[in-house]
Automatic annotation (TrEMBL):
This protein's name: Formamidopyrimidine-DNA glycosylase
Residue ranges constituting the FPG-type domain according to the UniProt record: 247-281
Origin: domain of life: Bacteria
Quaternary structure note: Monomer.
Native source species: Paenirhodobacter hankyongi
A GO MF term: zinc ion binding
Keyword GTP-binding: no
Taxonomic path: Bacteria, Pseudomonadati, Pseudomonadota, Alphaproteobacteria, Rhodobacterales
Length: 281
DNA sequence: AATCCACCCTGCAGGC
DNA sequence: TGCCTGCAGGGTGGAT
């Protein structure tokens, strides 16, 4: 369930169950997800204390007291479910094992964290924390949308001369890290930019305006606990609710919330884009 | 460097 | 409790 807001929501949901606690047992049910899992993963996790849970782009990093970090990517369908903890006034019991439960961590304190991923586009790896920036999955990533390195001049410069559509450019994790198919459509709607326009031919002022809009959309989505499409859930089983705030995504044929023109769906680089043909030029 | 697109895998909805 | 197609929030790798 993975764009930046969903991953951040998962991180926040896992933190109380994991941070400061030891992994008492680790069960690894298959040798690979999208790529092979690291050598002796269960052994390298067992007995280790999770010092911190961090997020970089769409990755979660669990820093262990061994000097390694567990790198987690949810792919398209990955979930991290917490059980055996209190949620408000009631206790979340451990569910029966599900098909596609690939990794199960039993935490000190009684919590269980289950990684379930039907499509197996997700990934896990162990990396030395002090060398994580050089990890092959992280090394080329662009700046964090909320970081200081993501600013107007940067984005204008980065997109200068690019012939690819602005939709494709913003999906490129080397340009800015963490946006995905939903939030790019939402950002471009708010910016009034047609997703088909060549990135390098859009006025600098309009490109610059994307920076605060990216932050605005992502902030609102995080605040809402992410988006729950197709039954995806937060770590505690709750549903995010930003999907109710989509202005164009997944709304083909519905009236534009601004002008009433039917929202259009097109395919770009094999993925759906949604936009208002009247408001976005 | 930029761009295109086949591919990885399973599940589900919709049409027949 | 059919069969088939298309679609799904991810990203890589090879070709051009």
């Amino acid at each position: 369930m993975p764009e930046l807001p969903e991953v951040e929501t998962v991180r926040r949901g896992l933190a109380p169950a994991m941070e400061g606690r030891r992994i008492e047992a680790a069960q690894v049910n298959r040798p690979d997800l999208r790529w092979p899992l690291p050598e002796n993963m269960a052994g390298r996790l067992t007995g280790r204390r999770v010092e911190r849970l961090r997020r970089r782009s769409k990755y979660i990093l669990a820093d262990l007291d061994s000097g390694e970090s567990l790198l987690i990517h949810l792919g398209m369908s990955g979930r991290m479910l917490v059980s055996g903890v209190m949620l408000g006034d009631y206790h979340l019991d451990h569910p029966a094992p599900q098909k596609h439960d690939h990794v199960v961590l039993e935490m000190e304190g009684g919590a269980r964290v289950t990684f379930n991923d039907a499509r197996r586009f997700g990934a896990m790896d162990l990396v030395r924390t002090d060398r994580e920036a050089a990890h092959w999955l992280l090394v080329g990533l662009g700046p964090e949308p909320f970081g200081n390195e993501f600013h107007e001049e940067y984005l204008v410069e980065r997109l200068k001369g690019r012939a690819s559509p602005i939709k494709t450019a913003l999906l490129d994790q080397h340009v800015v890290a963490g946006l995905g198919n939903i939030y790019v459509s939402e950002v471009l709607f708010r910016a009034g930019i047609d997703p088909r326009r060549a990135a390098g031919r859009i006025a600098s002022k309009r490109i610059a305006a994307l920076v605060p809009l990216v932050r605005e959309v992502l902030s609102e989505a995080i605040e809402a606990g992410g988006s729950s499409l197709r039954d995806h859930r937060q770590a505690d089983g709750e549903l995010g609710y930003f999907q109710h705030s989509f202005r164009v995504y997944d709304r083909e044929g519905e009236p534009c919330p601004v002008c009433g023109t039917p929202i259009r769906r097109i395919v770009q680089s094999g993925r759906s884009s949604y936009f208002c043909p009247q408001c976005q030029k």
